[in-house]
């Protein structure tokens, strides 16, 4: 059937399927190696983007990968895709680290966070997910600038709502609604169904 | 925090931007508010897509280290302690209800009629479903609205090796509904998987649950959606179809 041809490897990067995570949950170390190869670049890239510190990123990255190993049995397909589950763990751990460093008065972390930039300008980033990058970039362009700024600051910089509000000089309630309509617009543009 | 304020927190929650108190309040709210629960899950999935575009390989030496530590690290057993995953479990339950259960209750009656499968259902089952229907009038109305919306078209085809597949395409609502009946049971290591086929190829619409009645599936019609296709895949599904479709349902454009 011509119209139901499988997508080529070029157009869609290989994803972690639920069955791979099931194998990991059963203690299959080779499966965990495959999961590592599929996800390590995305996990490390996100943590590094949020933390802006190589040494801390490596530490948090190892914690995240071990959490995935330990909690693989707790993944439930009804919650969404395996890669979203893994990326949620990575994002949570990265922002927790940023906030505890900030609470401890770590100036390096604070200084790094002030360098607001776009998520795509780093040439060292791998091109494996070029199609996904193009889609995300295109969809971000459909957001209003307040929606876009709110989403980028919260997700890639790990800012809290009050931090985004003070940075953008808008009321806290507005930040929350902009994050919500911004993500809703992205969801619709990307065709995400959880 | 007012209810209206709570409904607004799904985006900030999905990006870990709430403080601990708000986070707790919102996760409590997810247990009570079906629409927020469904939305929150989708927005978390959306946020994860943002995370997938900053790819950067970790230092190669970390691979051996992580795998070695993992080999020495005890994994958690599958049983989930309620304290840890309560919000997640609630999300899953809500989504299951919203996407499958509720619509199943509503649409299986329609499906039974449409596909002529009520021979296998007892009056009891039907009346339980009718009761469920009464409880979920809103969802039922939504489904009915889908099927009776302007321009909605229905196509029904027999499935190779047995059974019937049916699609309702509601262009004015940008939604597609898929129903199947009488599909032969597959070996335990295989699943039926549904695909939304657009000009640039098929996208998975999910794996059909095994056993019992098949719930209808409602999905967004992506731009350029041309047809639905059903294939047999390894259990749990594939990222792209690996077998020839058993049925293709063209959606009128
Ligand atoms: Zn709500």
From TrEMBL, chain B:
Protein's recorded name: Regulator of SigK
Gene Ontology annotations of biological process type: regulation of translation
Domain Putative zinc-finger: 6-37
Compartmental location: Cell membrane; Membrane
Keyword field: Cell membrane, Membrane, Transcription, Transcription regulation, Transmembrane, Transmembrane helix
Keyword Protein transport: no
Cellular component annotations (GO), alphabetically ordered: plasma membrane
Membrane topology: Single-pass membrane protein
Anti-sigma K factor RskA C-terminal domain segment(s): 103-245
């Amino acid at each position: 059937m011509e119209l139901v041809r499988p997508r080529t490897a070029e157009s869609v990067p290989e994803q972690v399927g639920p069955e791979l995570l099931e194998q990991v949950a059963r203690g299959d170390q080779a499966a965990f190696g495959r999961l590592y190869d599929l996800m390590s670049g995305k996990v490390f890239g996100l943590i590094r983007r949020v933390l802006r510190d190589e040494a801390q990123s490596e530490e948090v990255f190892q914690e995240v990968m071990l959490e995935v190993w330990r909690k693989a049995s707790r993944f439930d397909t009804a919650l969404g895709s395996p890669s979203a589950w893994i990326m949620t763990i990575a994002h949570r751990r990265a922002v927790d680290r940023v906030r505890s460093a900030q609470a401890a008065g770590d100036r390096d972390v604070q200084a790094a966070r002030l360098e607001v930039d776009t998520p795509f300008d780093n040439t060292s980033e791998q091109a494996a997910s070029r199609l996904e990058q193009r889609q995300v970039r295109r969809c971000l362009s459909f957001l209003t600038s307040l929606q876009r700024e709110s989403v980028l600051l919260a997700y890639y910089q790990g800012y809290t709502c009050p931090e985004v509000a003070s940075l953008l000089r808008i009321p806290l309630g507005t930040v929350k609604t902009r994050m919500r309509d911004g993500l809703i617009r992205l969801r619709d543009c990307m065709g995400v169904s959880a | 925090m007012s209810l209206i304020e709570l409904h607004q927190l799904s985006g900030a929650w999905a990006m870990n931007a709430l403080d601990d108190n708000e986070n707790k309040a919102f996760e409590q709210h997810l247990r009570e508010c079906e629409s927020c629960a469904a939305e929150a899950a989708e927005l978390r999935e959306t946020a994860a897509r943002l995370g997938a575009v900053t790819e950067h390989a970790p230092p190669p030496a970390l691979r051996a280290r992580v795998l070695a530590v993992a080999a020495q690290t005890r994994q958690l057993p599958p049983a989930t302690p309620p304290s840890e995953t309560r919000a997640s479990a609630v999300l899953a339950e809500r989504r299951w209800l919203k996407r499958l259960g509720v619509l199943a209750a509503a649409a299986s009656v329609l499906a039974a009629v449409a596909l002529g499968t009520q021979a296998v259902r007892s009056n009891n089952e039907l009346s339980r479903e009718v009761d469920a229907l009464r409880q979920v009038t809103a969802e039922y109305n939504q489904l009915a609205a889908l099927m009776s919306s302007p321009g909605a078209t229905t196509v029904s085809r027999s499935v190779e090796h047995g059974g019937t597949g049916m699609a309702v395409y509601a262009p004015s609502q940008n939604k597609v509904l898929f129903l199947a009946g009488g599909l032969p049971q597959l070996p335990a290591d295989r699943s039926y998987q549904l695909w939304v086929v657009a000009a640039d190829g098929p996208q998975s619409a999910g794996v059909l649950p095994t056993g019992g009645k098949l719930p209808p599936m409602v999905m967004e019609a992506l731009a350029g959606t041309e047809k639905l296709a059903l294939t047999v895949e390894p259990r749990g599904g594939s990222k792209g179809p690996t077998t020839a479709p058993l049925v293709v349902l063209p959606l009128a454009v």
